[in-house]
Structure formats: C-alpha cells, structure tokens
Amino acid sequence: MGLKFGSLHNELFWLMLLSENSFKNWIPYKLLGNSDDLSCEWLYVGEEPFLEPFFDSTIARCKHLPENFERQKNVTSLSTMLEWSAKVDAAETAAFIFHVSRCGSTMVSQLLSMHMEHIVLSEVPFFDDILRMPQTTNYTNAELFKAAVKLYSQKKTVSEKKVFIKTDSWHIRFHKEIRQMFPQVLFLLLYRRPDEVVRSLNRAAGMHCVPQIIDPQFFGIRDKVVTITEFYDYPVKVIGKYFESYLEAAAADPNLLLLNYNEGLLPIIEKISSRMGIIFTADELAKMKERLLFQGKQPQLYFSPEPEIESIADKFSGAFELYDRLERIRENMLREPAF
C-alpha cells in the first residue's frame, strides 16, 4: 500500500490499524515531499468535535494528544489516503462557505457549529495545500481534495449529518474546480463593503494581502508592490479580484447564496437555515445569541462594533462598482424563488 515507516514499532502500529480497520479519527494533515513524490503525514484528532474558530488551533490542540507523541511521524503514500477515504463513515458535505475576509464568516461558521448535526471545518490548511499544489503525475488534485474532505468529515457521533467547509478567502479563485467536484452542494458567498474589509486588513493583514506569501499573479494582479503605500493599498486590489470572482460565480452558478455582512449575522443564519431546511433548538439559538457577544476570531474578547467610515477614498471606486453589482444580484435573488 505504499506505507512509509520510521521504526518497527511505528510499522506494527500502522499495520494494526489497517488490520482492524480502526483508522477512525486520524486525518492527513501535512503533505511531504515534492509533486513527483508526495506522501502525507497523519494526525490523531480524538473524539472531541472541531469547535475552534480556525483549524490551525485544532491541530495545535490535537498535537498534545498521546497518540501524537510518537517520535517517528505517521506517514503514508497518497494512495493509502485515497484507499482509507473510501472506508470512513463520513457526514455529507452540505455547504462551502466562501468569503472575502473580515466579513463575518468566522462567526457564521461558529454559529453553524452549534447545531448537534453539524461538523464545521474552518480554513483547513491541508485543503489549501491540495488546491494550490502543482498537478501530480499520479493523482488529480480533485480526487485528492475529495478524499481529504471525506477523511476530515468522519462522524464522531451518530447525530452528525452535515459538513460545512469554510474555505480560505482566496479559494473563490477555485470556484469552478470545487463546483465540478461537488455539483449539488450549496455555496455560501459572504462579503462586505470593500472599505470596511480593507480597514480591517490594514490593521492586521491576512496572508492573502502579503505579496511575498501569495504571489499577486495568483489573483491576476500584475502590478508590483514595492513601496509602503503600494503595500497599504494592495488589499484594495485583492478585494476587487474577489468581487470579480464572486460576480463570475453568481452569473454561472444558480446553487449559491450571496450574503452581505451588513444584513446582520443572525439574519444571515436565518437565510441559510431557510434555504437548507435547518431547524435550531431554543437552546441552540440561545447559545448563538450568547456567542454573538464575543469576537469571532477571539472568543474570549467581547465584540465591539467598528465605527462607521465617514468618507471613501477614490482608490475604492472600482471595488465599489463591483460591490454595487453584487448587491443588485443579491437583491434580485431575494425576490426570486429558492433553487
């Protein structure tokens, strides 16, 4: 099966897993090697649900579990990953949550996770690694991505039925590819006024707004970012590209919802619930309202609304033109019957 081991003890342990078909609660969390010789490292995640705002925090927590204390890494070939994915008891992929960053997607994910039937996977690094890796000679990115999604969607309880995948913000650039992989799954596209998004990104830049981390050409941006001013204004260009991708998706894909942060997060949850037939209990709704008192990314801190922006710089004119077009499409969707 192409297994790779670092010690006899490790080999016997993995063979036991295979013979007992008990690889439940193990996930592939890191790609190793290069595109011509890739393998994956596995992490034990235990029985606890994924409740952290971001999956990086889940990984950090799980690394302290005893099963992950082995000195040798638990590594297999990609073929083993594909084989194991066909055997797991996984919940159904119900929706992908796309977002333009700083638009309430973290909180929406947190609120959805409060339903006992829901698994929420928030910005899983392994998913991004597969989507952005060069095409391998032995496997397609699509089959690897679908296998990874299934392994991460393993049921921890009998009540878990639906999986919500919150993407990284730049994954809207993979809309066509993900739609081909999941033709029936609802896509939720969250966004916000561009000046409000950029104000937040200028305070704390996400990796998509650092040209040295994600090449501007990935977004179709050809301008060089050299000066401090160009770096400060770079998020405006990125958000504009996100809006362009949103417009392309909305024009081609009837199975999506456009959701504006300024509608309010509870109304957004109500829209999602109505579209998907989700019913929250009174207790779950009470927990959601309590969760809204705190910040999405830092749940230990109280939420404080940002002040309104009084003036809009000329640099936002192009982004606002795209934003206004999205708003018109969203308003038309509200008047049309559900898909």
- Provide a count of the helices: 12
Helix/strand/pairing class, anyone?
Answer: alpha/beta
Tell me about the biggest sheet? Answer: 5 strands, parallel
Unreliably modeled segments: 1-9
- Overall CATH class: Alpha Beta
CATH topology: Rossmann fold
* CATH H-level superfamily title: P-loop containing nucleotide triphosphate hydrolases
Q: Order of strands across the widest beta sheet?
A: 5-6-4-7-8
Radius of gyration: 21 Å
Could you walk me through the main structural features you see in this protein, from its secondary elements to its overall organization?
The protein has 12 helices and 8 strands. The chain has 339 residues and is α/β, with parallel strands linked by helices. It has a single domain (89-335), classed as P-loop containing nucleotide triphosphate hydrolases (Rossmann fold, 3-Layer(aba) Sandwich). The strands form 2 sheets. It has a 5-stranded parallel β-sheet with strand order 5-6-4-7-8, with helices on both faces. A 3-stranded antiparallel β-sheet has the order 1-2-3. Helix 5 packs antiparallel against helix 6 (141-152), helix 8 (194-203) packs across helix 9 (228-252) and helix 9 packs parallel to helix 12 (317-335). Residues 1-9 have low confidence and may be disordered.
